[in-house]
Amino acid sequence: MKNELINEQMSNKEIVYTVSNMIIGFGILTLPNTIVKTTVSSDGWISVLLGGGVAILFAWLIGKLGESFPGEHYHTMVTRIVNRQAAHILTLCFTLYFLLFVSYQIRGVSTITRLYLFDNTPEEFIGFIFLLVLAYGVAGPSIALVRLNLLFFPVLVCILLAIVILNIGSFDVHHLLPVLKSDFTGILQASKETILSYLGVEIMLFYNIFVFKKKKATAPIVYGVMISTVLYLLLFIVVIAVFGSVVTEHTLYPIAELAKEVEVPGEVFERFEFFFFVIWLISLFCTNVMALDVAIVGVMSIFPKARRISIITALLPLMYIIGLLPSGLYELHIFADWISYFGIGVAWFIPALLLLMVKLKGGRAHE
Amino acid sequence: MNKLIKAMLAAALLLLMTGCWDQIEIEERGFVVGSALDVAEDGKIALTFQIVLPVQMKGGSGQKDEGGSPYINLTSTADTVFKAARNMSNEMSRSPYLAHNQVIIISDELARTEHMGDILDVFVRDHESRRASKIMISNGKASDMLKIRSGIETLPVQYISSTQENPDKSESITPPTNIGDLHDLLLSNSSYALPRVHKVEGDRISTSGAAVFNGRDHRLIGYLNEAETTGRNMILGTVRTASLELNTDQRKLLFEVREFRRMIKVSEGPHGLPMFDLIISVKGVIGESGLEEVEMMEQLNEEIKLKVEDKIKQYISRVIDKSQNEYRSDFLGFGSKLYEQQYHLWKKYGDDWDRGEFIYSQCNINVKVDVKVTTIGTVTKSK
Amino acid sequence: MPLTTSKPIYGFEVFLASNGLLLQANVNVWIKKRWLETIKAIDWFGGNALDMKHTVETMDVLSTDLYENLKALNTLLNDPSDLTTKVIAVGGSKYKAAIVSLEGLSDQLLLKEQVINPIQQNTSMSVESLLNPTQALQDIENQMISLQVPARTGQWETIMSFLLSGDAVLLLDGADEALMIKSRDWPSRSIEEPQTEALVRGPRIGFTESIETNISLLRRHIKQPELMIMPHTIGRRSKQTLCIVYIKGIANSSLVNEVERRIKSLNLDYAPESGTIEQWIEDSSLSPFPQILNTERPDKVTAALLQGKVAILLDGTPFVLLLPFTFVSLLHSPEDYYERWVIGSLIRLLRLVAVFATLFLPALYIAILSFHPGMIPFKLVVSIAASREGVPFPAVIEALLMEVTLELLREAGIRLPKPIGQTIGIVGGLVIGEAAVQAGIVSPIMVIIVALTAISSFAIPSFSAGISFRMLRFITMISASFLGLYGIVMLFIMICLHLIRLHSFGVPYLAPIAPSFKGDWKDMFLRVPVTWLTKRPVFMKPGDTHRAKKR
Question: ipTM score here?
Answer without folding.
Answer: 0.92
